[in-house]
Design goal:
The complex is a heterodimer. Chain A is mainly alpha-helical. Chain A is built from 9 helices and 1 strand, in the order αααααβαααα. In chain A, helix 6 packs across helix 9. The chains are: A mainly alpha, B alpha+beta. Strand 1 of chain A pairs antiparallel with strand 25 of chain B, so a sheet runs across the interface.
C-alpha cells in the first residue's frame, strides 16, 4: 500500500486570504442564521464569531472542503450548548407576592397587539433551543428533515416531531393573539 | 400548517432583513483567535510541537485503471476482511479508515452514525448477530469527504455472523435510513436510497458463504459499474470479523459496574454521591492543569454505543451509561478537558472490543498506545468539537475511559491520564460522610406548613433525614416525601436543609427577588428546569450553618400541577406538564406552589 504524504496545504493552519473571502461571501448568511437561532438577538455576533473562530483554527483542513456546512453545524451546536449550559444553573426571578392569573399575564413579552410577524419571532425565541434550531434549519435554511437531522445529530423522526411541535406552539400564539384582538 | 410555515418564513426574513456583516468581521474573528492563543501561549507552543509530530500520514490506495470486465483470475486491487476486490472504477482512493459496526439483540435500537449506512430507522430486536467491516473508495474531490459524508464512490461491507444469510432479517437488524423497501432479485436484496447529504446510492446484499454476506453500494453516478464491481469480488479468506460472545452480552438493562439502579437521569454532581448511584463512585483527576474550572457535567443512559458522545439521547433502554466530567479554561470558558466514563455490563470487555468501540466513537483512526504500567490504550487526534487529542483505555471489563484535551493540553495528556482514578463505591465511607455532614450542622428547625400533595389544613407528616447533601456543602436536612414508603427521589418531595453556603456559580448573576422569613432569598434551578430540583436559599443566622435551603423537586410535583392545568383549561388534558410546549405555564404554576410553601415556613 503506497503511502501518500499529507500535503502541506492540508496541515497549514491558516490561509487568511481564503478565510477573509469565505467570511465576506457567507458571513452575512451565517450571521442571519445565528440571529434566528439565538434566544437573545444580541448574542448572534458573538456566537457567529465563535463558530468562525473554531473553523479558523483548522482552516487549512476545513477550506479543502465546503466550509459552510461545517461552520453552520458548529454554529447550531454552539447555540444549543450555550443554552444548555445556561439552563444548568439558572437563577430564577420569583414574582413577589404570587403569580398573575394566566389570562392576565403579558403574552410573550407583553406585546399584545403587535404584528403577527413580531409575535412569531417572539414565539420562536421562546421555544427550547433545539426546537428553535429545527424551525430555523427547516424554514429559514430550507433544509430537508434529513439535512436538519444531520446538522443536529439526531434522527429524522426527532426533527419531524420537533418541527411539528414548534409550529403547533407558534400556531397557538397566533390564535391567542387573534382572539385577544377580537 | 402550511400557512404557518409561510408566515414563519416571512417573519424570519423580516427579522434578519437588516442584518449585515459588520465591517472587519473576519478580522475580529482572527483577533479573537490570537487573543485566545496569547492567553495560553506557552501551552500552545507545546501542543503545536506535539501536533506536528502526531499528524498521521494519510495512507491512500490509488487504484489502477481498469478497462473491460475483470478476468476470472484478475489480480486483487484491494482487500477487505478476507474479500478480494479485483475491480473498482477509475480514480477512486480508499479511505484510510475502515468502518466497523456490529448488530445483535442488544444493539438493534440505536441511531446510525453512517459507518455502515444503516437500512432502517428504528427497529425491533433481531436474532441476527453480526459484525461488519466496510471499505470505502471515493473520488478524491473537495466536495466528497468523510467528515461531511461521502456522496460518491463505492463501498464494500463484509457482514459476518450467525444468520446473516437471512437477508430480510439482516436488513431488519441494521438500523438507519432507507428511503424505499428493498426488493429481492435472484437471491439478492437490492434497494436504492436518496438521502440528503449522502446522495443517491444503489445497494446490493447477498450471501456468499455460511456466515458471510456482502453488501456493495455504489453512488448513482457509478451505477454502470455496479455489476463489474460485484463480479470482481472473491471471498478467499476467513476474514477478521469477530463476534461478541453471547455469554458476555448481558440482557439490556442488566446492572453492572457504575450502572445505576434506576433510569432517572442525573443532573448534578451531588446526585452521583447518593445511595441511588452506589455503583459509581466517581472520577478523580489528580493532576488537573492550572487554570481549569469544572467537574461533573452530566450522566445519562444510552441505549447503544453510537449514542456515546452525543449530548442528547431520547430513546431506548439504558444498556449503557455515560458520565462526563468537563473542565474549562477559567479565563476563556473554552472547553479544555473532558473525561468520559462509558459503562456497560456487556461491552467493551477487552482491548480488541475497545478498539472497535473507539472506531465507532472517534472520527480519527485510533492508534495503539500504552499507558504507564503497560496497559493498552488508543489515541487519536481530535478535530471536531474539542480539537486536540483523545485517549481511551479499558479500566476494567465493561468500563471504558476516554480523555479528550484541547490542543493547549496535548503535551500534558499522559500526565493527566496517569492521574485519573475511578473512585470505588464505598457505602461505608458514604455513610460516614453523611454522618459527618449531619454532625457539621444541626437539623433545621424551620418547617413548612404547606406541601403540594396536602390539602389545606391537613397535618404535616413526619419528615425523614435527608439521605445526602452535596459533598462540598456539609449540612443536615429533612425531607417530606408524598409517599415515604417509596424511594423518595421518584415521588414529590420537599426538603429543608442547613448548609454552610448557598448555591453559587461564578459568572451567574445573583438576583434576589424574594424574601423568606424576612431574609433576601435566591432561587436557583439545579439542573434542567422541569426535571430537577429548585432550591431557594437564604441566610437565617450569621456564621456557619446559618444558610437554609428549601428544595422542591419539580419532576415530582409536576404531575399534580399538570392536573390543575388540565382542569383550568390552560393545557390540553393529558399533556405532559413538563412537555416543552407547556413549560412556561408549568414554570409559573410551579413558582406559585413554591411561593405557597415558602409563605408557610414557620419555626
Amino acid at each position: 500500500v503506497p503511502v501518500t504524504p499529507i500535503r502541506e496545504d492540508q496541515v497549514a493552519a491558516h490561509d487568511d486570504g481564503s478565510f477573509e473571502a469565505f467570511v465576506a461571501a457567507r458571513g452575512a448568511a451565517l450571521l442571519r442564521t445565528a440571529r434566528l437561532l439565538c434566544r437573545q438577538p444580541e448574542d448572534a455576533e458573538d456566537v457567529c464569531q465563535a463558530a468562525l473562530e473554531r473553523a479558523y483554527r483548522h482552516w487549512g483542513r476545513v477550506q479543502q472542503e465546503n466550509p459552510e456546512p461545517y461552520v453552520r453545524r458548529i454554529l447550531v451546536n454552539l447555540v444549543i450548548n450555550r443554552a444548555r449550559r445556561a439552563k444548568l444553573l439558572t437563577f430564577v426571578s420569583l414574582p413577589p407576592g404570587g403569580v398573575e392569573p394566566a389570562a392576565e399575564r403579558p403574552h410573550h413579552g407583553g406585546r399584545s397587539g403587535v404584528e403577527l410577524r413580531g409575535e412569531l419571532i417572539n414565539g420562536l425565541r421562546a421555544l427550547p433551543p433545539r426546537q428553535r434550531a429545527v424551525l430555523v434549519l427547516r424554514y429559514w435554511e430550507d433544509m430537508s428533515e434529513a439535512q436538519a437531522a444531520d446538522v443536529l445529530g439526531c434522527s429524522v423522526g426527532t426533527v419531524k416531531a420537533q418541527a411539528s411541535r414548534g409550529l403547533a406552539r407558534l400556531r397557538e400564539l397566533v390564535d391567542a393573539d387573534l382572539a385577544r384582538r377580537g | 400548517m402550511g400557512d404557518m410555515e409561510g408566515a414563519l418564513r416571512g417573519a424570519m426574513a423580516d427579522e434578519v432583513a437588516d442584518v449585515s456583516l459588520p465591517a472587519g468581521f473576519a478580522g475580529q474573528v482572527r483577533a479573537r483567535h490570537r487573543r485566545h492563543r496569547r492567553i495560553r501561549v506557552s501551552a500552545t507552543l507545546a501542543s503545536v510541537v506535539a501536533l506536528v509530530v502526531a499528524v498521521p500520514l494519510a495512507t491512500t490506495t490509488v487504484l489502477r485503471d481498469t478497462a473491460g470486465p475483470p478476468p476470472a483470475d484478475a489480480p486483487a486491487v484491494d482487500e477487505v476482511d478476507g474479500v478480494v476486490v479485483t475491480y473498482l472504477p477509475d480514480g477512486l482512493v480508499r479511505d484510510p479508515v475502515d468502518g466497523f459496526d456490529y448488530g445483535g439483540p442488544s444493539f438493534a435500537d440505536r441511531q446510525g452514525d453512517g459507518w455502515t449506512d444503516r437500512l432502517i430507522e428504528g427497529t425491533g430486536l433481531s436474532d441476527v448477530r453480526w459484525t461488519a467491516r466496510t471499505a470505502r473508495w471515493h473520488p478524491d474531490r473537495p466536495d466528497n469527504h468523510r467528515v461531511f459524508g461521502y456522496q460518491h464512490g463505492v463501498r464494500v461491507t463484509v457482514f459476518r455472523g450467525d444468520g446473516v444469510e437471512d437477508l430480510p432479517a439482516l436488513a431488519e437488524s441494521i438500523p438507519g435510513n432507507r428511503t424505499a423497501e428493498p426488493e429481492e432479485l435472484d437471491g439478492r436484496l437490492v434497494f436504492r436510497s436518496d438521502i440528503v447529504f449522502a446522495g443517491e446510492w444503489i445497494d446490493v446484499l447477498w450471501p456468499v458463504a455460511d456466515g458471510v454476506t456482502l453488501r456493495v453500494r455504489v453512488s448513482d453516478d457509478l451505477e454502470d459499474e455496479l455489476e463489474r464491481v460485484l463480479d470482481g469480488l472473491d471471498v478467499t479468506g476467513p476474514g477478521e470479523g469477530f463476534l461478541i460472545d453471547a455469554a458476555q452480552e448481558a440482557p439490556p438493562g442488566d446492572g453492572g459496574f457504575c450502572t445505576p439502579a434506576s433510569n432517572r437521569p442525573l443532573t448534578s454532581a451531588g446526585q452521583v454521591l447518593g445511595d441511588e448511584w452506589d455503583h459509581f463512585g466517581g472520577v478523580t483527576v489528580g493532576q488537573l492543569p492550572a487554570g481549569l474550572l469544572g467537574g461533573f457535567d452530566h450522566a445519562m443512559p444510552v441505549s447503544g454505543l453510537n449514542d456515546f458522545g452525543g449530548p442528547t439521547v431520547d430513546h431506548g433502554a439504558p444498556d449503557h451509561w455515560q458520565y462526563a466530567y468537563v473542565y474549562r479554561f477559567a479565563d476563556t470558558d473554552e472547553e479544555a478537558l473532558r473525561v468520559t466514563v462509558a459503562c456497560g455490563s456487556d461491552f467493551p470487555r477487552d482491548a480488541e472490543q475497545l478498539g472497535l468501540f473507539l472506531q465507532l466513537r472517534w472520527s480519527g483512526e485510533p492508534q495503539p498506545h500504552q499507558l504507564a504500567g503497560g496497559r493498552p490504550a488508543y489515541v487519536s487526534d481530535r478535530h471536531e468539537d474539542l480539537p486536540g487529542r483523545q485517549l481511551g483505555w479499558l479500566e476494567r471489563p465493561g468500563v471504558a475511559l476516554e480523555v479528550s484535551v484541547s490542543e493547549e493540553l496535548v503535551g500534558q495528556l499522559d500526565e493527566i491520564v496517569d492521574s485519573i482514578q475511578l473512585r470505588e463505591p464505598d457505602a461505608a465511607a458514604e455513610d460516614a460522610a453523611a454522618e459527618d455532614a449531619a454532625a457539621a450542622c444541626p437539623l433545621p428547625e424551620v418547617r413548612p406548613a404547606a406541601l403540594p400533595w396536602l390539602a389545606e389544613g391537613e397535618p404535616l407528616p413526619e419528615p425523614a433525614p435527608l439521605p445526602f447533601l452535596y459533598a462540598d456543602e456539609p449540612g443536615a436536612g429533612l425531607v417530606w416525601a408524598s409517599d415515604p414508603d417509596r424511594e423518595w427521589f421518584d415521588v414529590p418531595y420537599v426538603s429543608i436543609s442547613r448548609v454552610q453556603e448557598p448555591d453559587r456559580e461564578p459568572g451567574v448573576q445573583f438576583d434576589p427577588t424574594y424574601e423568606v422569613r424576612g431574609h433576601p432569598a435566591e432561587a436557583v434551578w439545579v439542573g434542567d428546569p422541569g426535571n430537577s430540583p429548585i432550591h431557594v436559599s437564604w441566610r437565617e443566622q450569621p456564621g456557619q450553618c446559618g444558610v437554609y435551603r428549601l428544595s422542591v423537586n419539580s419532576r415530582g410535583v409536576a404531575p399534580m400541577l399538570g392536573e390543575q392545568w388540565a382542569e383550568g383549561g390552560r393545557c390540553e388534558a393529558g399533556e405532559d406538564p413538563v412537555d416543552e410546549d407547556c413549560f412556561e405555564e408549568f414554570q409559573q404554576a410551579f413558582h406559585s406552589e413554591l411561593l405557597r410553601i415558602l409563605d408557610s415556613l414557620a419555626s
